[in-house]
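Need tokens for this chain, all 525 residues.
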Amino acid sequence: MSGTMVQTLIGMGAYLLVMITVGLWYARRSNSNPEQYFLGSRGLGPWVAAMSAEASDMSGWLLMGLPGVAYFTGMGEAFWTAFGLWVGTLINWQIVAKRLRTYSQVADNAITLPDFFSKRFHEKRKVLSTVGAAMILIFFSIYAGSQFVTFGKLFGYVFGATDYYVVMVVLGALLVMLYTLLGGFLAESTCDFVQGIMMFIALLLVLVVGFFAAGGFGDIAENLRNFPRFTDIFGIATPALGADGLQQVSGGKPVFGPGANYSLLNIVSCLAWGLGYFGMPQVLLRFMAIKSTSKIRESRIVAVTWCFISLFAAVSIGLIGRAWLPDLLKTAGDAETIFLHMASRFFPPLLAGLVLSGILAASMSSSDSYMLIASSALANDLFKGIINKKAGEVTVMWVARITILVVTVFGVGVALSGNQSIFRIVSYAWAGLGAAFGPLILFSLFWKRTTYPAAVAGMLTGGVTVILWKNVISQLGGADSPLRVYELLPAFVISCIVIFVVSLLTKKPSAEIEKEFEEAKVAEF
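Here are the structure tokens for all 525 residues:
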């Protein structure tokens, strides 16, 4: 092992040691009861709520997936995806955060998302909580796998050998599992706050240094001008691929086709990413856990600002990387390592290790959220809610820990399945959660007439439509078929229609549910 590699690992190891320490620090406080473990007793400050929500949401996708898309096919898809996410973040914090914070407490102090749906509609048979928990277990396990792919790519690059991919996927997964098991929601949220800062600093450092290393605006623009439609937000670059699937290179320059128009359908598909925010449990839980409604405005400013700057930096890094290292990365999967290449070339090894820890931060902040939310879904919503309603707190906590272990194993399986595109894995899980929960969150919070049968039908419709659209419907027709739209969009719209129609066709909610709805509209905590 070279001295450079050792120094890089020391920098990354220092960061990991801090995260384990945080988990140990919160272990005693967080393990006192399920509400403390799963929701931190609604005690998050505005900065921790904001930063942990965004860090857990963006994941390794922000530092690897999004720059990789910008590097490989240019600005079109990356720009519209980032813009949709930023608008979704803004609207979610603006209209959902306060109402969900109050309603989740008014609704018999719900501590998980399935628990909120169940208590919001006063269900007795726990169908909503069961379906919600199942959706979370399916899509969050896939989501966790995308983060373990990040671990494998990161450490495979650091060690300079793809042979380390499997080993580092497993070790990274075990590390996150360890401090999530120890500290629960408080440890996870505090770690995510630190990790959000790390991600932000890493992005800005690589962006600023990369900008000057690539020669500034003039040289970057001149280099990218050689690649047709690369900087056109209404177009997309088309890398010319050889028989081996690698982008062709001629005279030291990557070969591109003439490019293509980025149609209105493509743009709408990318913007649809923003719809996912309304159904993201890792973000919605922060709304439920914030200390008081008076802190939400401060949290919103922090979250929206962080999101805008970070997304701008991520897309810019991909473009700068293509201008500076044009022929280095020849597949879409390899392009997701452009951040790694730039960080390791710009900074001395020890500092590079700290910068690369930004990727660890991104992946850990998301995968710990996925594990904890999945464990709460099974332990609190399925086990205690349905299987054993008399289960004690100690039993529930042990079921939660076992679930974390199971989700970790499943996520590792996803990471080793052969699909190593972080961007594509995330997009599927994002669509599933966004369509299953997003429409129901909006109708539950803002339409009193929403009925219990409609809630069940809408949740099932959203999740199932994503699976069918992704794997069956989108395969029909040619490449330009409107059926190739991002599966989140049709699933979200269809779920909204189902909730609306079924609500009108079924008996209106009870006077007790309507009274609770009105109370939540004006409540302050």
